[in-house]
Design brief:
The chain has 20 helices and 22 strands. The chain is of the alpha/beta class. The longest helix has 23 residues, at 292-314.
């Protein structure tokens, strides 16, 4: 039934038989967006606020199946039919530009854009406040250029030196990594005009800080995108930068050029660095590039994992449900070259394992529950002497809050699968990077938290697969219920030696740490240190949080073993304490609440967690060896 009001209702009250009525009917049909014919009109008075109109079924040109004619040259995406949910999710691809390393200085002559990395001279005291306004500070001293930078500066009559001098207070001779000066357009005696950009690399006397090379990669990407019609780019890097490793440069470059055009059409499609074909990192002043290309490929593979993480978080619920997420998992396995095996447990499989906590939430879903298990084993591995680790991700494809329905931010609740997204992105990257010595199990219990006649309600008691009974106090504390059975599975059935879990679990963690850091909850000091080190290396920032055992009292139930949430105070802590009931006490386990950094209000999905998980897995294999 269509419910019409205002002028649309008036049209049908007047009736379609006279000229005025016909005109109003045509207008009303256009207003509703329906191409269906009106088959009957109910009898109403002129004062009726709403009019019911029976309409024929939608035609093939309805909004649910976007016509290719309307999209022009763009391929339409499939959302759903009325009765069948979407079964697949498209993936965004990296920009096709290649990235390579070279020692051949002639690449500068052939490039449209040349980016020159500049190190500021080492100061007498590197601990000196760089924000000092002292006019005589070292940061405003005369520029000192060396190597290729000096050669180019002399070629163009000191243009680089002049620009650095004019911008001394801001650029500080390149002391701030990733800082750039305005683009110079210069032409040599026998060359066409081309663009030159000076990029700060930090101070010469300091070690390269974690995150610097990723930042450099993002700056390169940004300039290649903003400078119009750049086809080829050469980046002159000092030896110190080459030695710091180029994997992060590649990751930063490709991941920065992410544009989700899956649901855009026509002029709304965003094309980043659309003319770019190649970027060459030039070690003109020395530096070993023997392993450079392998490092650049590794960074590209990490970026592909980050892309998938962003794709999953960005996808709307009418695209991404438990079935289309399961299809995504199958595709990861199919494209892994045999290093990943995919197992999907259906409703009966979960029931036979007693996964009552997970299924209690899944009862409210539109689609059948999909318990997804991806297993990575190294290529040519015998399976012996591998460290078996578990990575569990929260896979709530949409969270309405259930019967404790959300009153704010519901439009953002597609990102409640951020944990699963990070896990699957890491699975894709791990398969490509193929770390040795580790067997990784990626586990996601996928469903939605919705409302229907079968959905759980407050006061229900669910039984998890380890026998623990849980009284439901709030249906909006559902993620931990799905994680409970996933953790038992990783611990007992798979037998993982160490387990980490990522989830957008609580708003309380954002109150504590803001939106830039994840909270790490673990009682294992060694695992906490591992995650702290990996966090610093990858730039996926985190902070260890307390697990105050006295707060367990908040989880006491009058009728069951425990409740699914505590009071409003210490909510992120009680969530972490709840999860501990589903992993063996002696087993290293960390809960990582990523509710804050998984989403950026301006740009959408951030890809957070992909690098952290991938690097943690790699190091587990090294520690086993």
């Amino acid at each position: 039934m269509l419910f019409l009001s205002g002028s649309a209702a008036s049209a049908f009250v007047v009736g379609p038989r006279n000229a005025v009525g016909k005109a109003l009917v045509r207008s009303a049909v256009r207003t509703t967006g329906s191409t269906a014919a009106v088959s009957s009109v109910s009898s109403v008075s002129s004062t009726t606020a709403w009019t019911r109109v029976r309409v024929a079924p939608f035609s093939s040109t309805s909004a649910l199946s976007m016509s290719s004619d309307k999209l022009g040259e763009n391929k339409p995406f499939t959302t759903w039919s009325f009765d069948k949910p979407c079964g697949t999710m498209d993936w965004c691809e990296l920009v096709p530009a290649t990235m390579s390393a070279s020692t051949d200085a002639s690449v500068v002559n052939d490039a449209d854009l040349v980016i020159v990395g500049i190190y500021a001279p080492a100061g007498k005291d590197d601990d000196e406040d760089e924000d000092s306004d002292d006019e005589s500070s070292e940061d405003e001293a005369a520029p000192v250029l060396t190597g290729m930078a000096k050669t180019l500066d002399e070629k163009f009559g000191g243009a680089f030196t002049d620009l650095m001098t004019e911008n001394a207070k801001v650029f500080k001779n390149g002391a701030t990594p990733g800082s750039v000066l305005p683009t110079l357009r210069l032409a040599g005696p026998e060359s066409k005009t081309k663009r030159y950009v000076l990029m700060g690399m930090g101070k010469e006397g300091k070690d390269v800080e974690e995150g610097t090379m990723t930042k450099i990669g993002k700056v390169i990407a940004s300039k290649c995108n903003k400078e119009k019609k750049v086809s080829t780019c050469a980046v002159v890097l000092p030896p110190k930068a080459i030695e710091a490793g180029l994997t992060d440069v590649s990751t930063g470059f490709y991941s920065c050029l992410y544009a989700d055009n899956r649901y855009r059409t026509g002029k709304n499609i965003k094309k980043l660095a659309e003319h770019l074909t190649s970027v060459t990192l030039l070690a003109a002043d020395g530096g070993d590039v023997t392993e450079a290309d392998a490092s650049l490929v590794a960074g590209q593979q990490m970026a592909r994992g980050i892309f998938l993480t962003k794709d999953i978080v960005n996808a709307p619920h009418n695209i991404l449900n438990s079935e289309s997420l399961a299809h995504t998992a199958k595709r990861i396995a199919a494209e892994s070259g045999g290093t990943i095996k995919c197992t999907i447990l259906n409703k009966k499989d979960c029931e036979s394992r007693g996964m009552g906590a997970y299924l209690g939430v899944a009862r409210g879903s539109e689609t059948e529950p999909q318990f997804i298990h991806l297993t990575y084993t190294p290529p040519k591995s015998s399976g012996k002497d591998l460290k078996k680790v578990g990575i569990v991700g929260k896979g709530l494809l949409f969270d309405t809050g259930g019967y404790n329905i959300k009153t704010a931010m519901m439009e953002l609740m597609k990102f409640d699968c951020g944990g699963a997204a990070a896990v699957f992105g890491a699975a894709r990257a791990t398969a490509a990077l193929a770390p040795e010595g580790v067997e990784a199990h990626f586990i996601v219990a996928a469903c939605e938290n919705m409302i229907n006649e079968k959905a759980m309600v407050p006061s229900d008691v669910l039984t998890a697969s380890n026998g623990k009974t849980i009284e439901i106090i709030n249906t909006d504390a559902e993620g931990r219920l799905t994680l409970a059975d996933a953790l038992v599975y990783a611990d007992k059935e798979v037998g993982c030696e160490s387990i980490i879990e990522l989830s957008t679990l609580t708003g309380a963690i954002m109150v504590s740490l803001g939106k830039g850091l994840a909270g790490v909850f673990t009682t294992n000091d060694e695992l906490a240190k591992e995650l702290e080190d990996v966090s610093k290396t990858t730039g996926d920032k985190s902070w260890r949080m307390p697990l105050e055992t006295a707060y367990n009292k908040q989880l006491e139930s009058k009728i069951a073993d425990l409740t699914n949430c505590g009071t409003r105070y210490g909510g992120s802590i009680t969530a972490g304490l709840f999860l501990q009931h589903f992993v063996s006490k002696e087993k290293p386990f960390a809960h990582i609440d990523i509710a804050g950094p998984v989403w950026n209000d301006k740009t959408g999905a951030t890809g957070f967690g992909t690098k952290l998980v991938t690097e943690w897995i790699r190091r587990q294999g090294i520690s086993k060896e």
